[in-house]
Design a protein that fits this description.
The protein is an all-beta fold and 117 residues long. The protein has strands at residues 2-4, 8-11, 16-22, 31-37, 44-49, 56-58, 66-71, 76-81, 90-97, 106-107, 111-116. The strands form two sheets. Strands 2, 4, 5, 6, 9, 10 and 11 form a seven-stranded mixed β-sheet that branches. A four-stranded antiparallel β-sheet has the order 1-3-8-7, with no helix packed on it. The relative contact order is 0.32.
Length: 117
């Protein structure tokens, strides 16, 4: 019920926006986190957005470069990535859970972002 897309190849310093589109659920009632993973490495939480108030929290590695936002009319959460670096290359996933639980209810299938120097 979550679909992440928008990945691709971009040069260092470029930007991408990844949408996470929900179906069959109302995404505005969920806490949404964007994760990324490089093969052979642990999955990293990049940024999350609260269900109420849409406050966001980002990892130090992307702070000031990545933002998350909601479009409730489109049932979508966006990850805006600016000033991309080679080390941002990864598969990006979105996931949704209820605010007061720790386990994620839904995961998107992942979209590959490749940043070239």
């Amino acid at each position: 019920q979550l679909q992440a897309s928008g990945g691709g190849l971009v040069q260092t310093g470029g930007s991408l926006r990844l949408p996470c589109v929900a179906s069959e659920i109302s995404l505005k009632t969920y806490y949404v986190t964007w994760f990324r993973q490089v093969p052979g490495k642990e999955r990293e939480a990049v940024i999350c957005i609260e269900s109420v108030g849409s406050r966001t929290y980002s990892a130090d590695s992307v702070n000031g470069r990545f933002t998350a936002s909601r479009d409730d009319a489109r049932n979508t959460v966006y990850l805006q990535m600016d000033n991309l670096k080679v080390e941002d290359t990864a598969i990006y996933y979105c996931a949704a859970r209820f605010e007061l639980q720790t386990e994620y209810n839904y995961w998107g299938q992942g979209t590959l972002v490749t940043v070239s120097s």
